[in-house]
Amino acid sequence: MALFSNKWWLLGVNVALSFGFFFIWAPMYDLFHYINSLFYVSYFYVMISLLMIVIKGKFLDAITYSFRRFNNRVSKDRDYLDDWEEKPLPSQMVKPTVLKMFIFQGIVLTVGMLGLLAYFYQSI
Predict the structure, then answer these.
(1) Above 70 in pLDDT, residue 8?
(2) Which of 20, 22, 48, 109 is paired with 33 by a 20 to 30 Å CA distance?
(3) Does pLDDT of 1 surpass 80?
């Protein structure tokens, strides 16, 4: 969890990761292809943060509870020590600090990408 403690250090790692994608997979070394590689990294953070927001909003809790209850009723080899009602639901497993980290990284990388995209289209 020490990786998540400093958000600016992680932002530098993400920018370096986008440069790595750029130098490995870009057919030409220009600003357009760097913007594409930065999009791949920022898209990952935006999608994971949106998924975590949906999970944190208790959207999947009822479905998970229903599957656990159904499995307990239908199962032939019941484990009487397994307390399915006390298991944490998906919304309880999302930590707010990790969610904030993903949201911050996604927003900052997306704003940086949009800034580079505006500069790219101004220079054409």
Answers:
(1) yes
(2) 48
(3) no
